[in-house]
Amino acid sequence: MSQRFILDPAVENDFPNFVTHLECSYTGEILPANQLHGLSPAGKPILVRYDLKALSNAVTKEELAKRPGGFWRYREFLPVRETKNIVSLGEVMTPLIPLRKLAGKGGELIVKDEGRLPTGSFKARGLALAVAMAKELGITRLAMPTNGNAGAAMAAYATHAGIETTIFCPDDTPEVNVSEIEYQGGKVYRVNGLINDCGKIVGEGKEPTGWFDCSTLKEPYRIEGKKTMGLELAEQLGWEVPDVIFYPTGGGTGLIGMWKAFEELEAIGWIGSKRPKMIAVQSTGCAPIVKAYEEGAEHAPLWENAFTHASGIRVPIAVGDFLILRAVRESGGFAIAVTDEAIDNAQAEAARVEGVLLCPEGAATYAAYKQSLVDGRIKSTDRAVLYNCATGLKYPMPPIARMLDKNQPIDYSKI
Amino acid sequence: MSQRFILDPAVENDFPNFVTHLECSYTGEILPANQLHGLSPAGKPILVRYDLKALSNAVTKEELAKRPGGFWRYREFLPVRETKNIVSLGEVMTPLIPLRKLAGKGGELIVKDEGRLPTGSFKARGLALAVAMAKELGITRLAMPTNGNAGAAMAAYATHAGIETTIFCPDDTPEVNVSEIEYQGGKVYRVNGLINDCGKIVGEGKEPTGWFDCSTLKEPYRIEGKKTMGLELAEQLGWEVPDVIFYPTGGGTGLIGMWKAFEELEAIGWIGSKRPKMIAVQSTGCAPIVKAYEEGAEHAPLWENAFTHASGIRVPIAVGDFLILRAVRESGGFAIAVTDEAIDNAQAEAARVEGVLLCPEGAATYAAYKQSLVDGRIKSTDRAVLYNCATGLKYPMPPIARMLDKNQPIDYSKI
Asked: What ipTM does the predicted assembly reach?
């Protein structure tokens, strides 16, 4: 069979690589590839650029279709040069699940369930790439702040690759995330603060410890991993984009990455100029991007006293704020905030009506979909995609107390 | 593109169906298809039989290779007649993850990670089929005993299909399982007993309530769903079987199902006569199959005072005992018991060394692999497959207490 289902770096052929250079996302300054980079000299995220013409001659949609699922199938679109540096924990093409009972009249509502990736979240995409590139560039110690899922993904991939990790998370991070980081070989600290406080500890520790800082958008490659969300979605929809994408927005890497994916796909002629409306979803308790969007601002300052139990989107300040806002505006989309109550209700409704368990951040996108239909900002006939960024199983659900005594006669009329 | 990634029963063409009849697995008595069946008149599990010659003329390996991942790709091998009865929650082809650091010298150790299926366990396979067939046969109320994951899968698929479910589980079933059943639209009761006590409640309630009993092997279709584990594994390995399969054995449906898959694949000429050694893995606290295997018995009586924290294999008596034992013996395999301590150690080792989080039952298979290498019952050069039957995220991990105070100076030399 031509399909290989075990990704074996030891026997895999090297793929051609099309990276030409890196580039500051703010100033456009050109930076050399094959070197360590954090933020650009201007203190902004760095983007990877490819020779897209050569890339388009090297791979076809038909060839891609024959490859096993999982984001490593997009090798030509990714920066890893040597196949031996690929790190794989069994990636899958995350499924599209239509919610037919909950869709707007005449439209389509589709969940892209990122919870099926290794470690149960979309963070696997970015961190697999960051870890593979760390391996390629000879890095042996990584550090990162996390709200939970990113830390788990980094620990698992780094452990698999033989790289050491140190991770800092807010003290109220869900227990399962803290435990899985450590259990999977990372070293984890709880901090009495939010993710930006944790980020500060990583930043200040870089020099004394020799850590490489893997924070969101502070190295160039997590965004390339998240880009595969856009490549994969377009492929799954037959190289078309949907009308709207609802994306739970913390650091925003995925939204920025998908936007980059669509740009690259259009450049090689695989999709047309149509773009989905990119909708950044936040919580009313932490909505810096929504505020900046509504004020017409380019940047989103620190949101004071951030709170929401959807911890993945509790990100008071994002280094890629201008990139998120740019993609949202260029796409004709918008930024929208939903309450924690709306998140809870949306989560319960999707589970009880469709049997689909969303994580709180994924539920936020469904809440935003409903709100946007009411607002009239999207049409009921739209084909809308919701990103469920993690498995709902990591989060507490309402406990059940109903008991039966096997030693007593059972009144079945009451069951 | 020819690949469709959204399984849409409404627009999908019907596939040809090759079911000829059903058959008692013990007496061989022939039973009609397209009717409701529980156990056979002899009180034994019922198997579905196909016109394999016609089937082999209707589909090729090459055609299969073009279909989207997920077990519905094996439609010709499955009993559902009308496509509109298919129930899908986004099935994926579960990945094979090589554990290169833990494999025996010169051999291969591969985890098949069933935790990526809807509701996070391999139970999705059997229950998707049971629910689809219930829909096809006009059943509106299902009931089942569960140790957790089967109940979650049944609730999710039945809710998606608009079917009512009532589920009974031991009172110490993990909280996440109990909650997710109810959250996903099932009605769940805790019972002060084990899964066989719960099964009794279902059995006695059938008449007064009108429930259809979906217990393991007490209806004919869950085994057809589990059969896809064998079809999928063979396809992933290029239509070859591995040398050994370690399978965590409670009710044993998957082991029986895979054995049936290999038989059907050989009958249509897709694989040869080679079979993997089928190894039934149990816990030393609940090992009825191991005891019967060692005693040369055909059946495995109730195991008294069963205990193990790997609750999925805490099954004191299995209605398919003789089918499990038959497959194990015919394959040249064996049944093996591991201690809870060995399970814990195996789980921690896989996580810390490979970054792969196994569930306790999956960890039992890795413990059994190690024990079998020491015993000499398998060879270090074997290609061995471990079934990780559920996501490890559903189970508690050791908690972490390490704290940092953001308001104090940090001594990075101690981090």
From this structure: 0.95
